[in-house]
Amino acid sequence: MANCPNCGSNHIQLKKETNVSWGRAAAGWALFGVVGGAVGAVTGEDRNVNACLDCGTSWKAGDLYKTLQIIKISTGVNLDLARDEDRLYMNKFMVELSPYLEEISKKEKEGRKLVEEVQNKSSESTAAGCGGGCLISFAGCTAIAGSASGGVLLLTLLIPPIVGMLIGILADSANKKSIEKKKEETQRRVEIMKRDAEEEFRNKVKIFMSNHSL
Predict the structure, then answer these.
(1) Dist CA 117 CA 91 (whole Å)
(2) Which of 13, 26, 165, 177 can pair with 63 through a Cys bridge, CB separation 3.0 to 4.6 Å?
(3) Does 170 score more than 90 pLDDT?
(4) Same-domain check for residues 90 and 146
(5) pTM of the full structure
(6) Which residues constitute the domain of residue 80?
(7) Residue 120 and residue 115: Cα distance in Å, rounded?
């Protein structure tokens, strides 16, 4: 169990609560690249709140763990929260770089939304292709039923469903190719958005490190 992020005390106890007074901004930070791999998943400990018995600060173990790991991977600094200067370094990092981590998360959400929109359009187009084929089949059968009779009727009634099915297949195939192309274009846009946001974060980290040292 880590030291208190506010005062550095190791007099900490677990409480079954949901409200915390420190670090909730970290919950919305994006995990990407080596940062995401390093942080990974936090276990059930995060369901409880850590509370400092000295200063009263409360926090989620997962939020503090994520913060320390992001700082370690981004700057190479392994913080010891028992030290005043390390806690100050952490707080400055959170204040100055939190907006850029949040921006990465924002771009990821925007990207997922764009991809979902394309996928929804794909489903609608497929339904439209099938519907068009069925409509043609129905119209053809109706026209034939009104003009043909006997054995000719039975034979000719088979033609519209086959034609309608073929038209539906062709329309569906064309739609799929168009949608796949849009998916690829959208995915490229999403990757560029994320890459730009991550690059901006890395640049800000370099500036931060040049201005703050331990």
Answers:
(1) 38
(2) 26
(3) no
(4) no
(5) 0.69
(6) 12-34+47-101
(7) 9
